[in-house]
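Researcher: Sequence recovery benchmark, item below. Answer with residues only.
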């Protein structure tokens, strides 16, 4: 099984080399736990390897995310940043000669952020329109936002299964962030290939962080909780140290 480097050396060692290629990984944690930082660090490693990488933000704008990560020296212009909530793009309708003559149009549909309603068909259509031959990594931030647009649990489960199928068919290795503060597993934990949990603890007024691999199909992994720090260069995982509360 080919492994995809995550951009975090200690995390790669916990997985025995990185994420399994073409897998779907849930990165779960509470607010401020480092989910977006880990996700973008994963994409920036892909850029170093000459890959095309997609970041789909279902919340913050590119400018806001850039401000949050510029201290790490990352330039989001190097990745394909998609924000369906941004209503600035214009559709280039265009008309091909074939369509004028009554034949099938050969012009590829241009999908822009202005066309998007937040649901599964629109999100997958938008991602698909940005996929390239060398697209290898996708991040969706966050899955929790997408789930808000689906009412009951049956609809959410159906949506999640279809989303995972789409991502696997893309051939990319994918991260989906998930807001969670409770210990009860979310629906996405069951349908994804892997689950990473980012923990934050407050001890004597001091914040301590840890990372845990809760699930990963098809490969062995480190089952111990390991210390994590957010440094000036991004996330660092200390895979040779045990985290003790």
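Model:
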């Amino acid at each position: 099984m080919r492994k995809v480097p995550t951009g975090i050396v200690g995390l790669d060692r916990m997985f025995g080399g990185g994420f399994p290629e073409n897998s779907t990984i849930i990165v779960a944690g509470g607010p401020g736990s480092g989910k977006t930082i880990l996700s973008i660090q994963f994409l920036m490693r892909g850029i170093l390897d000459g890959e095309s990488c997609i970041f789909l933000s279902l919340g913050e704008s590119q400018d806001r995310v850039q401000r949050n990560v510029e201290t790490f020296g990352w330039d989001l212009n190097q990745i394909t940043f998609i924000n369906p909530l941004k209503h600035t793009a214009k559709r280039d309708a265009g008309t091909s000669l074939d369509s004028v003559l009554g034949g099938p149009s050969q012009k590829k549909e241009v999908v822009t952020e202005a066309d998007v309603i937040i649901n599964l068909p629109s999100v997958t259509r938008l991602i698909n329109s940005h996929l390239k031959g060398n697209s290898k990594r996708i991040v969706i931030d966050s899955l929790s936002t997408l789930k808000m647009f689906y009412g009951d649990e049956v609809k959410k489960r159906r949506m999640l299964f279809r989303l995972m199928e789409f991502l696997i068919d893309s051939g990319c290795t994918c991260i989906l962030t998930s807001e969670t503060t409770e210990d009860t597993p979310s629906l996405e934990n069951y349908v994804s290939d892997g689950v990473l949990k980012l923990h934050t603890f407050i001890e004597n007024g001091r914040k301590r962080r840890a990372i845990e691999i809760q699930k990963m199909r098809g490969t062995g992994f480190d089952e111990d909780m390991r210390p994590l720090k957010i440094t000036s260069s991004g996330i660092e995982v200390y895979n040779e140290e045990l985290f003790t509360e």
